[in-house]
Amino acid sequence: MKRLSFQAIKCGHCTQIERLTNRAAPWRCCQFPALVTVIEHPTLGFVVFDTGYAPAFFEATQNWPERAHKIITPVRLNDDENLQSQLIKRGINHEDVGAVILSHFHADHLSGIGYFPNAAIYCAKDGLDQINGLSRFGALRRGLIKSLLPVDFENRAQFFTDCPTITLPRALSPFESGYDLLGDTSLFAIPLPGHACGQYGLAFLDADDRYVFLIADAAWSIDAVMNFHLPARLTNLMLHHGKSYPKTLWALHELSKNTPDTLIIPTHCDTTQKQLVQNV
Questions:
Q1: Cβ neighbours for 270, distance < 8 A, ≥ 6 positions apart
Q2: Is the dihedral of CA 46, 49, 55, 60 positive or negative?
Q3: What pLDDT is attached to residue 234?
Q4: Which helix (H) or strand (E) holds 80?
Q5: How many of the other CB atoms lie within 10 Å of CB of 129?
Q6: How far is it, in rounded angstroms, from Cα 193 to Cα 249?
Q7: So what's the pLDDT on residue 269?
Q8: Cα 273 from chain centroid (whole Å)
Q9: Is residue 31 over pLDDT 90?
Q10: Is 5-276 assigned to CATH 1.10.472.20?
Q11: What is the pLDDT of residue 82?
């Protein structure tokens, strides 16, 4: 099985009340970083998991109704946090990126997709069907901004469920099955229902011979995973499927106990960001 090296990059952050994401947290405003993970694959080149915030987000939210998005959830993207420039500093050009994997279609995961015009895009078909089937207002209510989709998105899309089904290694238990994205058992897409329509995580074996599990927004913090802290009940009303969210979080909690060596990475965890992100 291939061992893959990876880097975590912070591409902006939003500000929101911490208690909304964790019932055990205080009622205070805090920053939620948008993490992008860049994985080096021996044959495909670089694989980017999610794309964070980008200038395209601010362009897409200039007018109503999308403008409400950045008012409800204030976003900041510093000049040195631009994904494209951060990749260039690491010697990675957009031509070197063979694939982008979208965990789901929320704007803070999709905004930087325009940086990679030639990359294949792996995503969930039901997530794409949802955003295509909604009005602008209906999309906004679900954290989606339709104008962020490239015009050729569907021509480049490769759906998780079209990839071979695979039985996952015991190190990822209680998760049992996923999708072998490249057909070489190097990257596993794993359904993580609850937060958003068609949300998937990504698991792989890293250069240190440990499994890494990118869990997107199945939890907003590693504390929520380790201690099974559910979000506030108000937040539950805004989830795509509120009944599935606790089941997914519980499975992640069990994984963290059963296999503590597995590195679980939530996209918006400030603790994880401080541990993994290295400035170049």
A1: 30, 31, 32, 33, 221
A2: positive
A3: 85
A4: none
A5: 12
A6: 10
A7: 97
A8: 14
A9: yes
A10: no
A11: 95
